[in-house]
Automatic annotation (TrEMBL):
InterPro entries the record matches: ClpP/crotonase-like_dom_sf (IPR029045), Enoyl-CoA_hydra/iso (IPR001753), Enoyl-CoA_hydra_C (IPR014748)
UniProt xrefs under Gene3D superfamilies: 2-enoyl-CoA Hydratase, Chain A, domain 1, Lyase 2-enoyl-coa Hydratase, Chain A, domain 2
Protein name: Enoyl-CoA hydratase/isomerase family protein
Tree of life domain: Bacteria
Family assignment from sequence similarity: Belongs to the enoyl-CoA hydratase/isomerase family.
A Pfam short name: ECH_1
């Protein structure tokens, strides 16, 4: 790879530190940040680096320009007939749903249109902030495609089966307030304060919540989606007993009693 190509790749997703929060910006604004393999590779590599960096406690992802992500790049889609479907979009060592296994909080600040694969990536995040004007669409049915990249598993768990079928079969456009009412997003903020509000929320997590606790809570929630109540209770009992012996538990209590910010340990390597 030439130096110029490396520079171009590094610019596809920008990384900017805000204390213990890492801001990642999808950066193809001239194409509404349409998703392609180089962008995916850069984004996943940055997630890997953030997970390994003890100084990063929360990640926020947004889009450059007026959109979040318009979905798969149509130039790539036009050539799908000549590509091996078993390898398209697959990176060595990283599954397509890599963001779902990210152990730290991952927050989407959806600043504009989000469609198809872009919507899937937003749903892979733990929380979603958006604006009233942002447009959401699954898009797949209007491109002759199916519910891709696990959205048929994710969407019903967020909005329920009938609403998921509505969004998937019609591929209609939903604006920010309806997205909130449906359960697609968690916060609606004015466009001018969206990113600042998402970063402030992330900073609160980074400053006041145990990285270990948040990672384990994410693990519990995703495992509970496919288990029964007794299994979830048994896991929580095991993890609770382990947490009592971890330094973060004592620090959480002492910081509360001493009326000071907690000093929790960085997340340990998996």
């Amino acid at each position: 790879m030439t130096q110029s190509t490396e520079t171009e790749t590094s610019e596809l997703v920008l990384a900017e530190r805000h204390g213990a929060v890492l801001l990642l910006t999808l950066n193809r604004p001239e194409r509404l940040n349409a998703w392609n393999i180089p962008l995916q590779e850069r984004y996943f590599a940055l997630l890997d680096a953030a997970e390994a960096d003890p100084g990063v406690r929360v990640v926020v992802v947004t889009g450059a320009g007026r959109g979040f992500c318009a979905g798969a790049d149509m130039e790539d889609l036009s050539q799908l007939g000549t590509v091996d479907p078993d390898t398209f979009g697959q990176l060595p060592g990283r599954p397509r749903e890599r963001p779902l296994s990210f152990r730290k909080p991952l927050i989407a600040a959806i600043n504009g249109p989000v469609a198809g694969l872009g919507l899937v990536q937003a749903l892979y995040c733990d929380l979603r902030f958006t604006t009233p004007q942002a447009k959401f669409t699954t898009a797949f049915a209007r491109r002759g495609l199916i519910a891709e990249y696990g959205i048929a598993w994710l969407l019903p768990r967020l909005v329920g089966p009938s609403r998921a079928l509505d969004l998937l079969m019609s591929a209609r456009v939903v604006l920010g307030e309806e997205a909130l009412a449906l359960g697609l997003v968690d916060r609606v903020r004015p466009a001018e304060s969206l990113l600042a509000d998402a970063l402030a929320y992330a900073a609160d997590l980074a400053e006041n919540c145990s990285p270990r606790s948040m990672a384990l809570i994410k693990q519990q929630v995703f495992q509970a989606l496919d288990s029964d109540l007794p299994t979830a209770v048994a896991l929580s009992t095991k993890l609770m007993h382990e947490s009592f012996r971890h330094p973060d538990s004592a620090e959480g209590v002492h910081s509360y009693l001493e009326r000071r910010p907690p000093r929790f340990e960085p997340l340990e390597s998996a």
